[in-house]
Design a protein that fits this description.
Helices cover 15% and strands 12% of the residues. The strands form four sheets. Strands 6-5-7-9-8 form a five-stranded mixed sheet, covered by helices on one side. A two-stranded antiparallel ribbon has the order 1-2. Strands 3-4 form a two-stranded antiparallel ribbon. The protein has five helices and eleven strands, in the order E-E-H-H-E-E-E-H-E-E-E-E-H-E-E-H. It is globular and about 50 Å long. It is an alpha/beta fold and 311 residues long. It folds into two domains: 207 residues, Collagenase (Catalytic Domain) (3-Layer(aba) Sandwich); 89 residues, Collagenase (Catalytic Domain) (3-Layer(aba) Sandwich), CATH 3.40.390. This is Metalloendopeptidase. It is an enzyme of class 3 (hydrolase). Its EC number is 3.4.24.-. Its cofactor is Zn(2+). GO terms for molecular function: metalloendopeptidase activity; zinc ion binding.
């Protein structure tokens, strides 16, 4: 739901939730190695973990066929879900995000409405940080393989494309992404360690769905017919992350609301008191969203947005 080039120096840095996060704000830039062919000539470290080294900003090899096979034979530590969905979010960084894990531009566009924000030909060029472990690369490969096997979206290694995503481990400020292709060159998808989990690959799929153009399910314009929001259990400055979007801002694609969607946050999202839900389905269901992967409706929505099927 991101380019950290010079333009980022005007934004301060970011943090997440999507599932998730912790961060630290600083301010000095880090230069990429000169021999790396990449448009990220300067990387601000506003919100980057202070222990990050220059190697963390190097690009790795594209995911290989084995990693994209969909086989996660090696487990990756999954960490604590409570931490990913907790209130431990830096206030000053949250203000830079929309919906908790979406970075915005001044001219922020929603790909569901603005067709120019869709990736041409359903192909998303990507580069990836070199610092991911082999096990983490398998999780990333599994998430991407789910797009490849169930939709017409293809994540392809970047060659000379001007617009592409940069999948980054080094920005230890949470899971986040822009929505759709922003058209301004490389754009980051932040996936630090606790967002790349063997048990919960849906966190990666969630951010990649932002990157191809999707907003949060729980912020659909028709939200009120399917869920109720317990605003008293949400801090006033966080209530914006529960507000429904306008029908002029997002297109539901004519498909039903999906309380189990990988794009739906859980019932405990940003709760002042975690024992009390902030959201619940109108039928009383509290098990909202999921971190395992796509629902059938998620798949239908991707395929419809990108016109994967003719006729």
């Amino acid at each position: 739901m991101i380019s950290l080039r010079a333009s980022w120096m005007t934004i301060l840095a970011v943090s997440f939730v999507c599932l998730w996060l912790e961060s630290k704000v600083s301010a000095s830039p880090v230069l990429l190695p000169a021999n790396k062919e990449d448009d990220h000539s300067v990387v601000p470290v506003d919100a980057v973990n202070q222990n990050v080294t220059i190697e963390d900003f190097e690009l790795g090899e594209p995911l290989n066929d084995e990693e994209l096979s969909g086989n996660m034979s090696s487990k990756v530590p999954s960490g604590s879900l409570s931490g990913k969905w907790s209130n431990r979010i830096r206030d000053e960084l949250l203000k830079k995000l929309a919906g908790g894990d979406i970075m915005t531009l001044d001219d922020n566009k929603n790909a569901v409405i603005d067709r120019n924000s869709l990736w041409p030909g359903a192909q998303v060029p990507y580069v990836i940080s070199a610092s991911y472990t082999p096990e983490q690369r398998r999780v990333l490969g599994y998430a991407i393989s789910e797009f490849h096997s169930k939709t017409c979206i293809r994540f392809v290694p970047r060659t000379t494309q001007a617009n592409y995503i940069y999948i980054r481990r080094d920005l230890n400020v949470g899971c986040w992404s822009y929505v759709g292709m922003n058209g301004n060159g490389p754009q980051d998808v932040s996936l630090p360690d606790y967002c790349v989990s063997y048990n919960y690959p849906g966190s990666v799929m969630h951010e990649l769905m932002h990157a191809i153009g999707f907003q949060h399910e729980h912020q659909r314009p028709d939200q009120q017919y399917y869920i109720t929001i317990n605003y008293p259990n949400i801090r006033p400055d966080n209530r914006q992350f529960f507000n429904p979007m306008k029908s002029t801002e997002v297109n539901t694609l004519g498909l039903p609301y999906d309380i189990k969607s990988v794009m739906h946050y859980p019932s405990s999202f940003m709760a002042n008191n975690p024992s009390i839900p902030t959201m619940m389905a109108r039928n009383g269901e509290l098990n909202l969203g999921n971190l395992k992967g796509f629902t059938q409706l998620d798949i239908q929505k991707i395929n419809k947005l990108y016109s994967c099927y003719s006729g």
